[in-house]
Amino acid sequence: xxxxxxxxxxxxxSAMLSGGAQAQAFxxxxxxxxxxxxxAACHGESGQGDGPVAAGLPISVPDLTRLRQRxxxxxxEEVLRKIIDGQETVVVHGTRYMPVWGYxxxxxxxxxxxxxxRVEIIVDNLVEYxxxxxx
Length: 135
Ligand code: HEC
Known about the structure:
The chain is mostly helical.
């Protein structure tokens, strides 16, 4: 699967898991709701990298509950914001399997200037949710 196919599979799956909820402004979702909808397919509902789509990827999906531990007990807030948004390259073997969320959410939110602000809120909510998952 290429990354685009994987993304579509992940989104289809998350739509199924969430019972086909109607389109909504995702900046009004909590970080947890956004995570369950867009991230859990790969990263797993608990964030440990064991979502159903993960098995179909040629690389392992990182455990998001140990981000702080792996960085010497510092939660890497700014780095995470950039990784999720897509400005920070996290390519392991030449291809980024993680969708570029800054772009995907911007399109979802209407692809204009106001959408940029909503993307920042969405990413902030996700980062705060990830903070709550650290062990
Ligand atoms: C299609 C599967 C997939 C989906 C969906 C996905 N990720 Fe990822 N994610 C990955 C993979 C694979 C990596 C490892 C880096 C890479 O290859 O892109 C990764 C890396 C990350 C990292 C870096 C972790 C580290 O150890 O440095 C973060 C943070 C992250 N993802 C957050 C998210 C968030 C938040 C969402 C939902 C908005 C999400 N991911 C959705 C597959 C996915």
